Amino acid sequence: MTTREGSLEAPKRLPIDWENPEYYDEPKLFAEMERVFDICHGCRRCVNLCTAFPRLFDLIDEGSTGELDAVEKSRYWEVVDRCYLCDMCSMTKCPYVPPHPWNVDFPHLMLRAKAVKHEKGGTSFRDKLLSSTDAVGKLASIPVVVQAVNAINKAPATRKLMDSMLGIHAERRLPEYDSHRFRKTAQPNADHAVRNGERTPGKVAIYSTCYINYNEPGIGHDLLKILDHNEIPVCLVEKEACCGMPKLELGDLQAVKELKDKNIPPLAKLAREGYAILTAVPSCTLMYKQELPLMFPDNEDVKAVAKAMLDPFEYLTMRNRDGLLKTDFRKSLGKVSYHIPCHLRVQNIGQKTKDLLQMVPDTKVTVVERCSGHDGTWGVKSEYFADSMKIGRPVFRQMAQHDPDYISSDCAIAGRHIEQGMGETSAQKAHPLTLIRIAYGLP
Fold first, then answer.
1. Cysteine-rich domain: which residues (predicted)?
2. What does the DSSP assignment read for 44-99?
């Protein structure tokens, strides 16, 4: 017998019934939370993943009975607010996920709770601001504005003010904005001949993401150079908005739908024309691969996009299997400490980034497979900054071992968080795409 009552089926996620009015019924939500929390209390396998589970177990253990019945339901929100929807509990730890009849999907239960909270007007101005990545990025990256924004984000006096008034922790290093937006400066090469492999499309469309567009466009340019070096024709997605992941983490599911309505039509057109669609941010890739298909399970355009959406290293590794990837690496990378972010791990594609980095001659890759603790906007917030650094401490320590030449993560904000947690180090922070560009000897 297996933990799923003899079933040999793989774990699966069920569609999110978010358009059903009962989804937002608070008493029914609390009843489901009580059911799932009681199962978690009897298991406790996820205690070391984040602070949501320790908070739940502390509430139970500190109660008068030592059971869930002694915990006031109003305190359930303390658990909800500590969940940042990394999905690691559901994907790697929980023995009761579907097809098990207990049907435990802790992250999607927390998503439902966040949606109920949002519908009741419980979302703060700070959280709305942090989740509006596209709107903030467009404003902050205006040439006249960008220098002032970057200066303000570094000034101790203004950071203390942001901490007290907005709840953005004064010690959190924030990403700089760049006025040279990726979509304005990118020059994709579409002139190469299309060479389809057995497993991979021979042409690529890049969905740039808010972060690459406004914060680190260099990562996007590195991806373009790698694809051009491999003679793969490339185009940019004709138009795009935020993928919706920040709004999903907020529980603003109507906003997710509105963003889906903007993004899916041009993406679906590309998918049906035979393009592989790449994003350099794992959370964005995951949004199109998993979350939108679960929110809109009957939408054929969403399904087409999900099938075409690939992580860059997933795509490059598939090209290598087809014998179509150039391996003329000219420069070794030395010792690389590489962190796999949660939203890449839960895509279940294996360690494709590591596999490609290890193809570079005279390069040793040390893999760190733990949550970094930043987790989207969660680690920026004043009330969770200390927890984010505590969660990341084992990662900081492991990344610093073996005196690496580079520290790297597919998630750029996780990489920045790890660099901050490591403190003084001679290692250079670089995105894995940047490392491959360096290894190819490209300028």
1. 204-287, 336-412
2. -TTTTT-SHHHHHHHHHHTSSSSSGGGS-GGGHHHHHTT-----HIIIII-TT-TT
Q: Find out whether 131 and 377 touch, Cβ atoms under 8 Å.
A: yes
Q: Which residues contact 213 (CB under 8 A, 6 or more apart)?
A: 137, 181, 182, 183, 220
Domain assignment present for 402: yes
**E strand or H helix at 303, and its extent?**
helix 300-308
Q: What is the reported pLDDT for 7? A: 58
CB of 397 closer than 8 Å to CB of 391:
no
Does 314 lie in the same domain as 186? yes
Distance CA 412, CA 435 (A): 13
Does any domain span residue 401?
yes
Q: Are residues 94 and 133 in the same domain?
A: no
Beta bridge partners of 335: 364
213 is in which domain, residue-wise?
182-318
Report the alpha-carbon distance of residue 167 to residue 195 in Å, rounded: 51
Q: Which residues of the chain have pLDDT under 70?
A: 1-8
Backbone phi and psi for residue 204, each to the nearest 5 degrees, phi listed first: -130, 140
Given this model, what pLDDT does residue 10 score?
77
Asked if the structure places residue 404 within a domain, the reply is yes
pTM of the predicted structure, to 2 decimals: 0.94
Provide the pLDDT for residue 54: 93
Determine the longest span between alpha carbons in the chain, in angstroms: 71
Q: Is residue 6 part of a domain?
A: no
With b for 16 or more beta-carbon neighbours within 10 A and e for fewer, the 410-432 pattern comes to bbbbbbbbbbbbbeebebebbbb
Same domain? For 365 and 422 the reply is yes
| Structure token digits, residue 36 | 């799932």
- Give residue 2's pLDDT: 41
